[in-house]
Amino acid sequence: MDTHPAHSISVVARRTGLGTHQIRAWERRYGAVVPQRSAGGHRLYSEADIERLRLLHRLTGAGHPIGHLARLSPEGLGALARSTPPDPPLVADALVRCLAGANRLDPAALDLELNRAHAELGHHVLVDQLLTPLLTQTGQLWQQGTLPMAVEHLISAVVRSFLGRLHTSAAPPPGAPLLVATSPAGQRHELGALLAAHAALSAGWRAVFLGPDLPADEIAFACRRSGAQALALSLVYPTGDTALPGELVRLRNLVGPRLAVLAGGSAAAGYQPALEAAGCHLVSDLAELRRTLAQLEAP
Ligand code: B12
Fold first, then answer.
1. Helix (H, G, I), strand (E, B), or coil: what is residue 277?
2. Which of 195, 236, 247 to mutate to test ligand 1, by most ligand atoms within 8 A of the CB atom?
């Protein structure tokens, strides 16, 4: 985790959902997070400090006393967070607030809700239980004609830039395995691949997200150049693309037999024979993707 002191207390408040008063009080009373100081004496926080404050926020919300939490090491705090399930109403409320912000065409409100939810829920739950339903419900509501296309576009744009920031601030261990996420040529929907990249990040992998609609030779180049152990392909539309089976075989020939190619998305099951022929695995959802990544890591 990045320990470079770079962020003011107001940035930290926005990103953790905590008040500046509370952050200072936890520092003064418990030494929960003691930031460095700028030449002018202002508090400066690192990404590691922000992550710690996020976890402290979530765990105090779940009833753990701050006096106890403040004494835990980063590893101890992380272990406690993993064993403390989030409150389901918390997730449902966050989803309602996100949709309300988007319906008011207020990108700042939606971004604030996503930051808060990240602080309270952690990366894994944020991706699976908030962003996945938010994006899929958005698509469905737009399709039913109950959500204007402008609101759907706003949600996609805010989520994309929020996840971009989260990606650059996530700091998996340097030796962690790496997943490339994209969609093959002709498949222009990108959010499934973006969520797959974040599912990998939240499982402790490094991830490279390449956007959608990439030809096989470009995907293979990226996998080789980045030294990827796995490739996630998102298949959403079209469903019966006659060019895709050949593209998958070409991809397999270019990347060699060892790279794990994991395909998901609403159209993926329809391509099962082509996926099998190219030695790719079908994964049903993000949870199965994480399980598969954990198996790949096992000695
Ligand atoms: C936004 C959108 C677009 C945008 C995409 C923008 C972008 N940069 O991604 C644009 C404008 C490009 C677009 C284009 C088209 N779209 Co469109 N689009 C949508 C919409 C509204 C939302 C899609 C979305 O992002 N959903 C959110 C994501 C998170 O959901 P998802 O992709 O399904 O991913 C989930 C799972 O599938 C899975 N998953 C996905 N990938 C992967 C990968 C792995 C490894 C794993 C484990 C899991 C996984 O995880 C995600 C979370 O559960 C949907 C409506 C809907 N109901 O979905 C239509 C929809 C998908 N589009 C559709 C169509 C028809 C088109 C166009 C043909 C429209 C046109 N006439 O031009 C083109 C086709 C483009 C192409 N060739 O691919 C149809 C598809 C119908 C079908 N399946 O048969 C839909 C369903 C709308 C509809 N009913 O008309 N679209």
1. helix
2. 236
3-state secondary structure of 135: helix
Q: What CATH architecture is 88-169? A: Orthogonal Bundle (1.10)
Output the pTM of the full model: 0.81
The CATH number of 9-82 is which of 1.10.569.10, 3.50.50.60, 1.10.1660.10, 2.60.40.2250? 1.10.1660.10
Q: Is 57 helix (H, G, I), strand (E, B) or coil?
A: helix
262 lines ligand 1 (CB under 6 A): yes
> What are the CA-CA distances from residue 32 to residues 59, 71, 73, 180, 299 (Å)?
13, 7, 10, 36, 37
Q: Where in the chain is the domain with CATH 1.10.1660.10?
A: 9-82
For the range 37-42, what are the long-range contacts, defined as Cβ-Cβ under 8 Å and sequence gap of 24 or more?
A: 42/8, 42/9
The helix (H) or strand (E) run that includes residue 208 is: strand 206-209
Cα 175 to Cα 64, 208, 262, distances in angstroms: 33, 15, 21
For ligand 1, mutation pick of 237, 248, 289 (most atoms within 8 Å of CB): 237
pLDDT tens-place string over residues 151-187: 999 999 999 999 999 898 777 777 899 999 999 999 9
Give me the CATH topology for the region 178-297.
Rossmann fold (3.40.50)
